Known about the structure:
The structure holds two protein chains of two kinds. Helices cover 78% and strands 0% of the residues of chain A.
Amino acid sequence: MNTMNTHSNPLPESSGESQVIAPAAFAANRPFFWALRRELWENRSLYIAPLAVAALILFGFMISTVHLPDKMRAASALDPMNQHEMIEQPYDFAELLLMATYLFVAVFYCLDALYGERRDRSILFWKSLPVSDVTTVLSKAIIPLLLLPVFIWAVTVATQWCMLLMSSAVLLGSGQSAAILWRHLPLFQMWTGLLYHLVVVHGFYFAPVYGWLLLVSGWARRMAFLWAGLPMLAIGVVEKIAFNTMYFANMLGSRLQGGDDAGTASAPGRMMDSLAVITLGKFLISPGMLIGLAIFAAFLVAAIRLRRYQGPI
Amino acid sequence: MPCIEARGLRKAFGTNVALDGVNLRVEEGRILGLIGPNGAGKTTALNAILGLTPYQGELRVLGRDPWIERDLLMRDVCFIADVAVLPRWIKVSQVLDYVAGVHPRFDRAKAEGFLAKTTIRRASKVRELSKGMVAQLHLALVMAIDARLLVLDEPTLGLDILYRKQFYDSLLNDYFDRSRTIVVTTHQVEEVQHVLTEVMFMDRGRIVFSCSMDDFESRYREVTVNPEKLAAARALKPMHERQGIGRSILLFDSVDRSQLSALGEVRTPSIADLFVAVLGDRAGNQAAPAQGAAQ
Protein backbone atom coordinates (compact mmCIF):
# COMPACT_ATOMS: atom_id res chain seq x y z
CA MET A 1 0.00 0.00 0.00
CA ASN A 2 2.99 2.24 0.60
CA THR A 3 3.79 2.83 -3.01
CA MET A 4 0.22 3.85 -3.67
CA ASN A 5 0.10 6.27 -0.81
CA THR A 6 3.17 8.18 -1.76
CA HIS A 7 1.32 9.04 -4.95
CA SER A 8 -1.90 10.05 -3.37
CA ASN A 9 -0.72 12.22 -0.52
CA PRO A 10 0.17 15.53 -2.11
CA LEU A 11 -3.05 15.74 -4.06
CA PRO A 12 -5.71 17.73 -2.30
CA GLU A 13 -3.39 20.66 -1.78
CA SER A 14 -1.89 20.64 -5.23
CA SER A 15 -5.24 20.78 -6.99
CA GLY A 16 -5.91 24.07 -5.28
CA GLU A 17 -2.51 25.42 -6.12
CA SER A 18 -3.05 24.81 -9.79
CA GLN A 19 -5.14 27.94 -9.95
CA VAL A 20 -2.24 30.03 -8.81
CA ILE A 21 0.19 28.58 -11.31
CA ALA A 22 0.01 30.25 -14.67
CA PRO A 23 -0.74 27.91 -17.57
CA ALA A 24 2.78 28.38 -18.89
CA ALA A 25 4.22 27.05 -15.65
CA PHE A 26 1.88 24.08 -15.70
CA ALA A 27 4.30 21.25 -15.11
CA ALA A 28 4.68 18.92 -18.05
CA ASN A 29 4.54 15.83 -15.87
CA ARG A 30 1.28 16.73 -14.16
CA PRO A 31 -0.97 15.13 -16.78
CA PHE A 32 1.10 11.94 -16.51
CA PHE A 33 0.79 11.91 -12.76
CA TRP A 34 -2.97 12.37 -12.97
CA ALA A 35 -3.33 9.81 -15.72
CA LEU A 36 -1.61 7.40 -13.37
CA ARG A 37 -3.97 8.29 -10.55
CA ARG A 38 -6.87 7.69 -12.86
CA GLU A 39 -5.59 4.14 -13.50
CA LEU A 40 -5.43 3.46 -9.76
CA TRP A 41 -8.95 4.81 -9.24
CA GLU A 42 -10.32 2.88 -12.15
CA ASN A 43 -8.53 -0.40 -11.47
CA ARG A 44 -8.72 -0.87 -7.77
CA SER A 45 -8.09 -4.59 -8.21
CA LEU A 46 -4.47 -3.61 -8.88
CA TYR A 47 -3.94 -3.18 -5.17
CA ILE A 48 -6.97 -4.88 -3.68
CA ALA A 49 -6.12 -8.29 -5.15
CA PRO A 50 -2.54 -8.45 -3.79
CA LEU A 51 -3.70 -7.12 -0.42
CA ALA A 52 -6.47 -9.70 -0.28
CA VAL A 53 -4.04 -12.48 -1.14
CA ALA A 54 -1.67 -11.19 1.55
CA ALA A 55 -4.50 -11.17 4.07
CA LEU A 56 -5.39 -14.75 3.15
CA ILE A 57 -1.78 -15.82 3.52
CA LEU A 58 -1.54 -14.21 6.94
CA PHE A 59 -4.84 -15.69 8.01
CA GLY A 60 -3.76 -19.19 6.98
CA PHE A 61 -0.37 -18.70 8.55
CA MET A 62 -1.93 -17.53 11.78
CA ILE A 63 -3.90 -20.76 12.04
CA SER A 64 -0.77 -22.78 11.30
CA THR A 65 1.13 -21.17 14.19
CA VAL A 66 -0.98 -23.29 16.56
CA HIS A 67 1.36 -26.17 15.75
CA LEU A 68 4.46 -24.03 15.50
CA PRO A 69 5.96 -24.79 18.93
CA ASP A 70 5.64 -28.55 18.30
CA LYS A 71 7.04 -28.18 14.82
CA MET A 72 10.03 -26.24 16.05
CA ARG A 73 10.75 -28.82 18.72
CA ALA A 74 10.75 -31.48 16.01
CA ALA A 75 12.85 -29.29 13.76
CA SER A 76 15.63 -28.97 16.30
CA ALA A 77 16.31 -32.66 15.73
CA LEU A 78 16.79 -32.18 11.96
CA ASP A 79 20.06 -31.34 10.26
CA PRO A 80 20.55 -27.65 9.40
CA MET A 81 19.76 -28.11 5.70
CA ASN A 82 16.35 -29.67 6.26
CA GLN A 83 15.71 -27.30 9.13
CA HIS A 84 16.32 -24.37 6.80
CA GLU A 85 14.00 -25.76 4.17
CA MET A 86 11.23 -26.39 6.65
CA ILE A 87 11.41 -22.91 8.13
CA GLU A 88 11.65 -21.17 4.81
CA GLN A 89 8.88 -23.08 3.08
CA PRO A 90 5.87 -20.92 4.10
CA TYR A 91 7.82 -17.76 3.27
CA ASP A 92 8.62 -19.08 -0.18
CA PHE A 93 5.04 -20.04 -0.68
CA ALA A 94 3.81 -16.57 0.27
CA GLU A 95 6.26 -15.07 -2.18
CA LEU A 96 5.20 -17.35 -5.03
CA LEU A 97 1.54 -16.74 -4.39
CA LEU A 98 1.98 -12.98 -4.52
CA MET A 99 4.11 -13.29 -7.66
CA ALA A 100 1.34 -15.28 -9.31
CA THR A 101 -1.14 -12.63 -8.22
CA TYR A 102 1.05 -10.03 -9.88
CA LEU A 103 1.03 -11.81 -13.21
CA PHE A 104 -2.67 -12.50 -13.00
CA VAL A 105 -3.54 -8.90 -12.17
CA ALA A 106 -1.11 -7.51 -14.76
CA VAL A 107 -2.52 -9.63 -17.60
CA PHE A 108 -6.12 -8.70 -16.86
CA TYR A 109 -5.23 -5.08 -16.31
CA CYS A 110 -3.41 -4.82 -19.65
CA LEU A 111 -6.22 -6.51 -21.56
CA ASP A 112 -8.75 -4.03 -20.22
CA ALA A 113 -6.57 -0.90 -20.15
CA LEU A 114 -7.35 0.43 -23.63
CA TYR A 115 -10.47 -1.65 -24.21
CA GLY A 116 -12.58 -0.62 -21.22
CA GLU A 117 -12.54 3.09 -21.97
CA ARG A 118 -13.73 2.44 -25.51
CA ARG A 119 -16.42 0.02 -24.41
CA ASP A 120 -17.95 2.42 -21.87
CA ARG A 121 -17.47 5.37 -24.28
CA SER A 122 -15.58 7.30 -21.60
CA ILE A 123 -12.71 7.64 -24.10
CA LEU A 124 -14.66 10.64 -25.43
CA PHE A 125 -14.40 12.27 -22.03
CA TRP A 126 -10.70 11.47 -21.60
CA LYS A 127 -9.97 12.79 -25.05
CA SER A 128 -11.80 16.02 -24.29
CA LEU A 129 -9.04 16.93 -21.85
CA PRO A 130 -5.53 18.14 -22.64
CA VAL A 131 -3.88 14.77 -22.05
CA SER A 132 -2.07 13.29 -25.03
CA ASP A 133 -2.38 9.70 -26.21
CA VAL A 134 1.32 9.25 -25.45
CA THR A 135 0.77 10.23 -21.82
CA THR A 136 -2.27 8.01 -21.48
CA VAL A 137 -0.70 4.91 -22.98
CA LEU A 138 2.56 5.37 -21.07
CA SER A 139 0.67 5.76 -17.81
CA LYS A 140 -1.01 2.46 -18.54
CA ALA A 141 2.23 0.74 -19.54
CA ILE A 142 4.18 1.75 -16.47
CA ILE A 143 1.75 -0.02 -14.18
CA PRO A 144 2.61 -3.63 -15.04
CA LEU A 145 6.19 -2.64 -15.87
CA LEU A 146 7.23 -0.84 -12.72
CA LEU A 147 4.47 0.12 -10.33
CA LEU A 148 2.97 -3.31 -9.84
CA PRO A 149 6.26 -5.17 -9.23
CA VAL A 150 7.35 -2.59 -6.68
CA PHE A 151 3.98 -2.73 -4.98
CA ILE A 152 3.97 -6.54 -4.96
CA TRP A 153 7.44 -6.39 -3.47
CA ALA A 154 6.25 -4.07 -0.71
CA VAL A 155 3.28 -6.34 0.03
CA THR A 156 5.52 -9.40 0.10
CA VAL A 157 7.96 -7.70 2.45
CA ALA A 158 5.16 -6.64 4.77
CA THR A 159 3.57 -10.10 4.67
CA GLN A 160 6.79 -11.96 5.39
CA TRP A 161 7.65 -9.52 8.11
CA CYS A 162 4.27 -10.09 9.76
CA MET A 163 4.74 -13.86 9.43
CA LEU A 164 8.10 -13.69 11.12
CA LEU A 165 6.86 -11.46 13.92
CA MET A 166 3.80 -13.62 14.41
CA SER A 167 5.75 -16.87 14.69
CA SER A 168 8.40 -15.25 16.90
CA ALA A 169 5.69 -14.09 19.26
CA VAL A 170 4.12 -17.55 19.33
CA LEU A 171 7.48 -19.20 20.03
CA LEU A 172 8.36 -16.73 22.76
CA GLY A 173 4.91 -17.22 24.24
CA SER A 174 5.47 -20.96 24.46
CA GLY A 175 8.83 -20.40 26.14
CA GLN A 176 11.04 -21.27 23.15
CA SER A 177 13.67 -19.11 21.55
CA ALA A 178 12.82 -17.52 18.19
CA ALA A 179 16.48 -17.17 17.29
CA ILE A 180 16.41 -20.23 15.08
CA LEU A 181 13.82 -18.57 12.85
CA TRP A 182 15.82 -15.41 12.40
CA ARG A 183 18.98 -17.38 11.71
CA HIS A 184 17.39 -19.32 8.88
CA LEU A 185 15.56 -16.39 7.33
CA PRO A 186 18.00 -13.88 5.85
CA LEU A 187 15.07 -11.60 5.10
CA PHE A 188 17.00 -8.58 3.92
CA GLN A 189 18.93 -10.63 1.41
CA MET A 190 15.73 -12.31 0.33
CA TRP A 191 14.03 -8.97 -0.14
CA THR A 192 16.76 -7.39 -2.23
CA GLY A 193 16.82 -10.46 -4.42
CA LEU A 194 13.04 -10.41 -4.68
CA LEU A 195 12.91 -6.78 -5.69
CA TYR A 196 15.37 -7.46 -8.46
CA HIS A 197 13.51 -10.54 -9.56
CA LEU A 198 10.14 -8.80 -9.66
CA VAL A 199 11.27 -5.66 -11.44
CA VAL A 200 13.82 -7.10 -13.84
CA VAL A 201 12.27 -10.43 -14.71
CA HIS A 202 8.54 -9.95 -14.18
CA GLY A 203 8.62 -6.28 -15.09
CA PHE A 204 11.26 -5.72 -17.77
CA TYR A 205 11.75 -9.18 -19.19
CA PHE A 206 7.99 -9.70 -19.50
CA ALA A 207 7.58 -6.23 -21.00
CA PRO A 208 6.86 -7.43 -24.56
CA VAL A 209 4.02 -9.55 -23.19
CA TYR A 210 2.46 -6.52 -21.51
CA GLY A 211 3.07 -4.45 -24.63
CA TRP A 212 1.30 -7.04 -26.76
CA LEU A 213 -1.66 -7.23 -24.38
CA LEU A 214 -1.97 -3.43 -24.33
CA LEU A 215 -1.87 -3.34 -28.10
CA VAL A 216 -4.58 -5.98 -28.37
CA SER A 217 -6.71 -4.15 -25.82
CA GLY A 218 -6.42 -1.00 -27.91
CA TRP A 219 -7.33 -2.83 -31.07
CA ALA A 220 -9.92 -5.49 -30.22
CA ARG A 221 -13.57 -4.59 -30.55
CA ARG A 222 -14.56 -7.53 -28.39
CA MET A 223 -13.02 -10.58 -26.74
CA ALA A 224 -9.63 -9.01 -26.22
CA PHE A 225 -8.57 -12.11 -24.30
CA LEU A 226 -9.13 -14.32 -27.31
CA TRP A 227 -7.35 -11.97 -29.70
CA ALA A 228 -4.36 -11.84 -27.38
CA GLY A 229 -3.88 -15.60 -27.50
CA LEU A 230 -5.06 -16.68 -30.95
CA PRO A 231 -2.31 -15.07 -33.06
CA MET A 232 0.32 -16.70 -30.87
CA LEU A 233 -1.31 -20.06 -31.33
CA ALA A 234 -1.71 -19.46 -35.06
CA ILE A 235 1.96 -18.58 -35.58
CA GLY A 236 3.03 -21.63 -33.59
CA VAL A 237 0.72 -23.94 -35.52
CA VAL A 238 1.68 -22.59 -38.95
CA GLU A 239 5.37 -22.85 -38.10
CA LYS A 240 4.98 -26.40 -36.87
CA ILE A 241 3.05 -27.51 -39.95
CA ALA A 242 5.08 -25.59 -42.52
CA PHE A 243 8.59 -26.16 -41.22
CA ASN A 244 8.07 -28.73 -38.51
CA THR A 245 9.95 -26.47 -36.11
CA MET A 246 8.89 -24.88 -32.87
CA TYR A 247 11.12 -21.86 -32.58
CA PHE A 248 8.26 -19.47 -31.92
CA ALA A 249 6.63 -21.64 -29.28
CA ASN A 250 9.98 -22.21 -27.58
CA MET A 251 10.79 -18.55 -27.70
CA LEU A 252 7.46 -17.70 -26.13
CA GLY A 253 7.88 -20.39 -23.51
CA SER A 254 11.35 -19.27 -22.54
CA ARG A 255 10.15 -15.67 -22.31
CA LEU A 256 7.39 -16.67 -19.95
CA GLN A 257 9.77 -18.73 -17.84
CA GLY A 258 12.00 -15.74 -17.31
CA GLY A 259 14.43 -16.57 -20.09
CA ASP A 260 16.98 -19.36 -20.58
CA ASP A 261 19.93 -17.06 -20.81
CA ALA A 262 18.77 -15.48 -17.60
CA GLY A 263 18.26 -18.85 -15.98
CA THR A 264 20.92 -18.60 -13.32
CA ALA A 265 20.10 -15.04 -12.48
CA SER A 266 16.36 -15.29 -12.50
CA ALA A 267 15.26 -18.69 -11.38
CA PRO A 268 16.67 -18.68 -7.84
CA GLY A 269 16.73 -14.90 -7.91
CA ARG A 270 16.65 -14.65 -4.19
CA MET A 271 20.10 -14.52 -2.73
CA MET A 272 21.89 -11.37 -3.73
CA ASP A 273 25.62 -11.93 -3.55
CA SER A 274 28.37 -10.34 -5.58
CA LEU A 275 28.09 -13.05 -8.22
CA ALA A 276 24.39 -12.37 -8.65
CA VAL A 277 25.08 -8.67 -9.15
CA ILE A 278 27.40 -9.48 -12.03
CA THR A 279 24.84 -11.84 -13.52
CA LEU A 280 22.23 -9.15 -13.13
CA GLY A 281 24.32 -6.69 -15.08
CA LYS A 282 24.84 -9.23 -17.83
CA PHE A 283 21.16 -10.08 -17.87
CA LEU A 284 20.13 -6.45 -18.19
CA ILE A 285 22.17 -6.00 -21.36
CA SER A 286 21.62 -9.49 -22.72
CA PRO A 287 20.17 -9.67 -26.24
CA GLY A 288 17.05 -11.37 -24.90
CA MET A 289 16.34 -8.44 -22.60
CA LEU A 290 17.19 -5.72 -25.11
CA ILE A 291 15.24 -7.29 -27.96
CA GLY A 292 12.31 -7.73 -25.60
CA LEU A 293 12.38 -4.08 -24.59
CA ALA A 294 12.64 -3.02 -28.23
CA ILE A 295 9.58 -5.12 -29.07
CA PHE A 296 7.81 -3.63 -26.07
CA ALA A 297 8.60 -0.12 -27.33
CA ALA A 298 7.32 -1.00 -30.80
CA PHE A 299 4.06 -2.37 -29.37
CA LEU A 300 3.63 0.79 -27.32
CA VAL A 301 4.17 3.04 -30.33
CA ALA A 302 1.53 1.03 -32.18
CA ALA A 303 -0.84 1.26 -29.21
CA ILE A 304 -0.38 5.04 -28.99
CA ARG A 305 -1.07 5.37 -32.69
CA LEU A 306 -4.12 3.18 -32.40
CA ARG A 307 -5.56 5.19 -29.54
CA ARG A 308 -5.33 8.29 -31.65
CA TYR A 309 -7.61 6.74 -34.24
CA GLN A 310 -9.93 4.83 -31.95
CA GLY A 311 -13.23 6.11 -30.69
CA PRO A 312 -15.86 4.35 -28.64
CA ILE A 313 -16.86 0.87 -29.80
CA MET B 1 -8.63 34.83 -36.82
CA PRO B 2 -11.77 32.75 -37.22
CA CYS B 3 -12.39 30.19 -34.52
CA ILE B 4 -12.96 27.39 -36.99
CA GLU B 5 -12.02 27.43 -40.64
CA ALA B 6 -12.46 24.46 -42.93
CA ARG B 7 -11.87 24.24 -46.64
CA GLY B 8 -12.72 21.18 -48.70
CA LEU B 9 -13.06 19.00 -45.64
CA ARG B 10 -13.52 15.39 -46.73
CA LYS B 11 -13.88 12.15 -44.86
CA ALA B 12 -14.97 8.78 -46.12
CA PHE B 13 -15.57 5.53 -44.28
CA GLY B 14 -14.98 3.00 -47.01
CA THR B 15 -17.37 3.94 -49.81
CA ASN B 16 -19.58 5.93 -47.47
CA VAL B 17 -18.73 9.62 -47.81
CA ALA B 18 -19.40 11.32 -44.48
CA LEU B 19 -17.96 14.73 -45.35
CA ASP B 20 -18.05 15.75 -48.97
CA GLY B 21 -16.05 18.93 -49.23
CA VAL B 22 -17.25 21.00 -46.31
CA ASN B 23 -16.39 24.69 -46.30
CA LEU B 24 -16.99 26.33 -43.01
CA ARG B 25 -16.01 29.49 -41.23
CA VAL B 26 -17.07 30.27 -37.69
CA GLU B 27 -16.02 33.56 -36.19
CA GLU B 28 -15.32 33.92 -32.51
CA GLY B 29 -18.19 34.82 -30.23
CA ARG B 30 -20.86 32.96 -32.19
CA ILE B 31 -23.25 30.24 -31.21
CA LEU B 32 -23.63 28.01 -34.21
CA GLY B 33 -26.31 25.38 -34.56
CA LEU B 34 -25.40 22.58 -36.92
CA ILE B 35 -28.65 20.96 -37.95
CA GLY B 36 -29.10 17.93 -40.14
CA PRO B 37 -30.74 14.55 -40.51
CA ASN B 38 -29.13 11.46 -39.06
CA GLY B 39 -26.09 10.49 -41.08
CA ALA B 40 -25.66 13.99 -42.50
CA GLY B 41 -22.07 14.12 -41.25
CA LYS B 42 -22.55 16.45 -38.28
CA THR B 43 -20.79 14.25 -35.76
CA THR B 44 -18.01 13.46 -38.22
CA ALA B 45 -17.49 17.17 -38.78
CA LEU B 46 -17.34 17.79 -35.04
CA ASN B 47 -14.96 14.85 -34.57
CA ALA B 48 -12.66 16.34 -37.18
CA ILE B 49 -12.82 19.71 -35.42
CA LEU B 50 -11.97 18.04 -32.11
CA GLY B 51 -9.06 16.03 -33.47
CA LEU B 52 -10.79 12.73 -32.93
CA THR B 53 -10.67 11.63 -36.52
CA PRO B 54 -8.26 12.20 -39.41
CA TYR B 55 -9.57 13.99 -42.51
CA GLN B 56 -8.62 15.30 -45.91
CA GLY B 57 -8.68 18.96 -46.74
CA GLU B 58 -7.81 22.01 -44.71
CA LEU B 59 -8.96 22.57 -41.18
CA ARG B 60 -7.83 25.06 -38.56
CA VAL B 61 -9.34 25.35 -35.11
CA LEU B 62 -8.05 28.34 -33.12
CA GLY B 63 -5.14 28.33 -35.51
CA ARG B 64 -4.19 24.72 -34.86
CA ASP B 65 -4.44 21.51 -36.81
CA PRO B 66 -6.69 19.44 -34.55
CA TRP B 67 -5.48 16.02 -35.71
CA ILE B 68 -1.84 16.86 -35.03
CA GLU B 69 -2.28 18.90 -31.87
CA ARG B 70 -5.34 17.50 -30.13
CA ASP B 71 -3.92 17.62 -26.62
CA LEU B 72 -2.78 21.24 -26.95
CA LEU B 73 -6.04 22.23 -28.59
CA MET B 74 -7.99 20.74 -25.72
CA ARG B 75 -6.63 23.44 -23.42
CA ASP B 76 -8.83 25.91 -25.31
CA VAL B 77 -11.58 23.62 -26.50
CA CYS B 78 -14.16 21.71 -24.49
CA PHE B 79 -16.68 19.24 -25.71
CA ILE B 80 -19.61 17.25 -24.49
CA ALA B 81 -19.98 14.48 -27.01
CA ASP B 82 -22.93 12.73 -25.50
CA VAL B 83 -24.58 12.55 -22.11
CA ALA B 84 -23.18 9.13 -21.40
CA VAL B 85 -19.43 9.56 -21.63
CA LEU B 86 -18.39 10.32 -18.08
CA PRO B 87 -16.81 7.11 -16.78
CA ARG B 88 -19.34 5.34 -14.61
CA TRP B 89 -16.85 4.23 -11.98
CA ILE B 90 -15.55 7.70 -11.17
CA LYS B 91 -16.59 9.65 -8.08
CA VAL B 92 -17.70 13.25 -8.37
CA SER B 93 -14.80 14.35 -6.16
CA GLN B 94 -12.36 12.33 -8.28
CA VAL B 95 -13.50 13.81 -11.55
CA LEU B 96 -13.08 17.30 -10.04
CA ASP B 97 -9.57 16.37 -8.85
CA TYR B 98 -8.67 14.93 -12.21
CA VAL B 99 -9.82 17.84 -14.34
CA ALA B 100 -8.20 20.27 -11.89
CA GLY B 101 -5.04 18.20 -12.19
CA VAL B 102 -4.75 18.04 -15.96
CA HIS B 103 -6.45 21.24 -17.11
CA PRO B 104 -4.57 24.50 -16.69
CA ARG B 105 -7.71 26.58 -17.25
CA PHE B 106 -10.05 24.78 -14.90
CA ASP B 107 -11.47 26.82 -12.03
CA ARG B 108 -12.38 24.32 -9.38
CA ALA B 109 -14.20 26.80 -7.16
CA LYS B 110 -16.45 27.69 -10.07
CA ALA B 111 -17.30 24.05 -10.71
CA GLU B 112 -18.03 23.53 -7.03
CA GLY B 113 -20.28 26.58 -7.19
CA PHE B 114 -22.30 25.11 -10.05
CA LEU B 115 -22.53 21.76 -8.30
CA ALA B 116 -23.73 23.43 -5.11
CA LYS B 117 -26.89 24.43 -7.00
CA THR B 118 -27.62 20.76 -7.74
CA THR B 119 -28.32 17.78 -5.54
CA ILE B 120 -25.16 16.00 -6.68
CA ARG B 121 -23.05 14.75 -3.76
CA ARG B 122 -19.23 14.67 -3.95
CA ALA B 123 -19.03 11.10 -2.73
CA SER B 124 -21.41 9.73 -5.37
CA LYS B 125 -20.16 7.73 -8.27
CA VAL B 126 -21.33 8.66 -11.73
CA ARG B 127 -23.16 5.35 -12.02
CA GLU B 128 -25.33 6.35 -9.06
CA LEU B 129 -26.43 9.61 -10.66
CA SER B 130 -29.46 9.98 -12.90
CA LYS B 131 -28.91 10.84 -16.54
CA GLY B 132 -29.91 14.43 -15.89
CA MET B 133 -27.47 14.73 -13.00
CA VAL B 134 -24.64 13.35 -15.13
CA ALA B 135 -25.40 16.04 -17.69
CA GLN B 136 -25.40 18.67 -14.92
CA LEU B 137 -22.05 17.38 -13.65
CA HIS B 138 -20.51 17.40 -17.10
CA LEU B 139 -21.81 20.88 -17.77
CA ALA B 140 -20.47 22.10 -14.42
CA LEU B 141 -17.02 20.76 -15.37
CA VAL B 142 -17.13 22.29 -18.81
CA MET B 143 -18.42 25.67 -17.68
CA ALA B 144 -15.62 25.94 -15.11
CA ILE B 145 -13.05 25.66 -17.90
CA ASP B 146 -12.07 28.96 -19.41
CA ALA B 147 -12.23 27.66 -22.97
CA ARG B 148 -12.53 29.55 -26.22
CA LEU B 149 -14.57 26.95 -28.06
CA LEU B 150 -17.23 24.66 -26.69
CA VAL B 151 -18.54 21.86 -28.85
CA LEU B 152 -21.80 20.15 -27.93
CA ASP B 153 -22.93 17.09 -29.85
CA GLU B 154 -26.50 16.25 -28.89
CA PRO B 155 -25.83 17.40 -25.33
CA THR B 156 -29.38 16.92 -24.12
CA LEU B 157 -30.22 13.62 -25.79
CA GLY B 158 -32.39 11.55 -23.51
CA LEU B 159 -32.90 14.25 -20.88
CA ASP B 160 -36.33 15.32 -19.73
CA ILE B 161 -37.75 18.75 -20.55
CA LEU B 162 -36.73 20.37 -17.26
CA TYR B 163 -33.09 19.36 -17.57
CA ARG B 164 -32.99 20.34 -21.22
CA LYS B 165 -34.29 23.81 -20.52
CA GLN B 166 -31.98 24.22 -17.54
CA PHE B 167 -29.05 23.08 -19.64
CA TYR B 168 -29.40 25.80 -22.25
CA ASP B 169 -30.36 28.42 -19.69
CA SER B 170 -27.20 27.94 -17.66
CA LEU B 171 -25.17 27.78 -20.82
CA LEU B 172 -26.47 31.18 -21.89
CA ASN B 173 -26.58 32.88 -18.52
CA ASP B 174 -23.51 31.49 -16.77
CA TYR B 175 -21.17 30.64 -19.59
CA PHE B 176 -21.57 32.46 -22.85
CA ASP B 177 -19.92 35.88 -22.80
CA ARG B 178 -19.54 36.81 -26.49
CA SER B 179 -15.82 36.05 -26.52
CA ARG B 180 -16.43 32.33 -26.55
CA THR B 181 -17.70 30.27 -29.43
CA ILE B 182 -20.20 27.46 -29.12
CA VAL B 183 -21.02 24.87 -31.75
CA VAL B 184 -24.02 22.69 -31.06
CA THR B 185 -25.74 19.90 -32.93
CA THR B 186 -29.15 18.74 -31.90
CA HIS B 187 -32.39 17.31 -33.15
CA GLN B 188 -34.32 19.41 -30.64
CA VAL B 189 -34.14 22.43 -32.91
CA GLU B 190 -36.88 24.48 -31.30
CA GLU B 191 -35.01 24.42 -27.99
CA VAL B 192 -31.91 26.07 -29.40
CA GLN B 193 -33.57 28.48 -31.79
CA HIS B 194 -33.52 31.38 -29.32
CA VAL B 195 -29.97 30.51 -28.27
CA LEU B 196 -28.24 30.51 -31.64
CA THR B 197 -26.59 33.35 -33.48
CA GLU B 198 -25.94 31.29 -36.62
CA VAL B 199 -27.50 28.25 -38.16
CA MET B 200 -26.19 25.77 -40.70
CA PHE B 201 -27.97 22.84 -42.28
CA MET B 202 -25.99 19.78 -43.26
CA ASP B 203 -27.09 17.04 -45.56
CA ARG B 204 -25.17 14.15 -47.05
CA GLY B 205 -21.80 15.47 -46.01
CA ARG B 206 -22.33 19.01 -47.26
CA ILE B 207 -23.40 22.30 -45.79
CA VAL B 208 -26.54 23.12 -47.73
CA PHE B 209 -27.66 26.24 -45.93
CA SER B 210 -25.98 28.82 -43.76
CA CYS B 211 -27.38 31.98 -42.28
CA SER B 212 -27.13 34.22 -39.26
CA MET B 213 -30.15 34.29 -36.99
CA ASP B 214 -30.55 38.02 -37.60
CA ASP B 215 -30.83 37.35 -41.32
CA PHE B 216 -33.03 34.41 -40.65
CA GLU B 217 -35.51 36.53 -38.77
CA SER B 218 -35.57 39.34 -41.31
CA ARG B 219 -35.65 37.18 -44.43
CA TYR B 220 -38.00 34.30 -43.78
CA ARG B 221 -41.75 34.58 -43.26
CA GLU B 222 -44.33 31.93 -42.83
CA VAL B 223 -47.89 32.71 -43.76
CA THR B 224 -51.02 30.77 -42.94
CA VAL B 225 -52.85 31.68 -46.11
CA ASN B 226 -56.59 32.27 -46.24
CA PRO B 227 -57.97 29.79 -48.79
CA GLU B 228 -59.27 32.48 -51.17
CA LYS B 229 -55.82 34.13 -51.32
CA LEU B 230 -53.95 30.92 -52.12
CA ALA B 231 -53.45 31.65 -55.82
CA ALA B 232 -52.15 35.14 -55.06
CA ALA B 233 -49.82 33.75 -52.42
CA ARG B 234 -48.42 31.11 -54.78
CA ALA B 235 -47.70 33.83 -57.31
CA LEU B 236 -45.16 35.28 -54.83
CA LYS B 237 -43.11 32.08 -55.28
CA PRO B 238 -43.03 30.54 -51.83
CA MET B 239 -40.06 28.30 -51.25
CA HIS B 240 -42.24 25.71 -49.58
CA GLU B 241 -45.84 24.86 -49.02
CA ARG B 242 -47.36 22.55 -46.45
CA GLN B 243 -50.82 21.76 -45.21
CA GLY B 244 -51.93 22.91 -41.78
CA ILE B 245 -55.34 22.20 -40.33
CA GLY B 246 -57.51 23.02 -43.32
CA ARG B 247 -55.11 25.79 -44.37
CA SER B 248 -52.01 26.00 -46.48
CA ILE B 249 -48.88 27.29 -44.81
CA LEU B 250 -46.42 28.93 -47.19
CA LEU B 251 -42.85 29.85 -46.50
CA PHE B 252 -41.37 32.90 -48.20
CA ASP B 253 -37.82 34.13 -48.59
CA SER B 254 -37.29 37.91 -48.73
CA VAL B 255 -40.83 38.92 -49.48
CA ASP B 256 -42.07 42.17 -48.03
CA ARG B 257 -44.02 41.76 -44.82
CA SER B 258 -46.82 44.16 -45.77
CA GLN B 259 -47.39 42.20 -48.96
CA LEU B 260 -47.67 38.99 -46.95
CA SER B 261 -49.95 40.25 -44.19
CA ALA B 262 -52.65 40.78 -46.79
CA LEU B 263 -52.60 37.03 -47.46
CA GLY B 264 -53.09 35.78 -43.94
CA GLU B 265 -51.38 35.43 -40.61
CA VAL B 266 -47.62 36.12 -40.84
CA ARG B 267 -44.96 34.90 -38.45
CA THR B 268 -41.28 34.02 -38.32
CA PRO B 269 -40.88 30.34 -39.13
CA SER B 270 -39.15 27.94 -36.82
CA ILE B 271 -35.77 26.57 -37.85
CA ALA B 272 -37.46 23.22 -38.21
CA ASP B 273 -39.89 24.59 -40.81
CA LEU B 274 -37.09 26.16 -42.79
CA PHE B 275 -35.14 22.95 -42.51
CA VAL B 276 -38.01 21.04 -44.06
CA ALA B 277 -38.31 23.65 -46.78
CA VAL B 278 -34.61 23.54 -47.62
CA LEU B 279 -34.08 19.84 -47.29
CA GLY B 280 -37.52 18.53 -48.13
CA ASP B 281 -36.90 18.71 -51.87
CA ARG B 282 -33.40 17.35 -51.63
CA ALA B 283 -34.59 14.42 -49.65
CA GLY B 284 -37.17 13.75 -52.36
CA ASN B 285 -39.84 11.40 -51.19
CA GLN B 286 -37.84 10.74 -48.05
CA ALA B 287 -39.81 12.50 -45.35
CA ALA B 288 -37.95 11.03 -42.39
CA PRO B 289 -35.10 13.52 -42.08
CA ALA B 290 -37.47 16.46 -41.97
CA GLN B 291 -39.43 14.85 -39.18
CA GLY B 292 -36.26 14.01 -37.38
CA ALA B 293 -35.31 17.65 -37.30
CA ALA B 294 -38.67 18.78 -36.09
CA GLN B 295 -38.85 16.41 -33.17
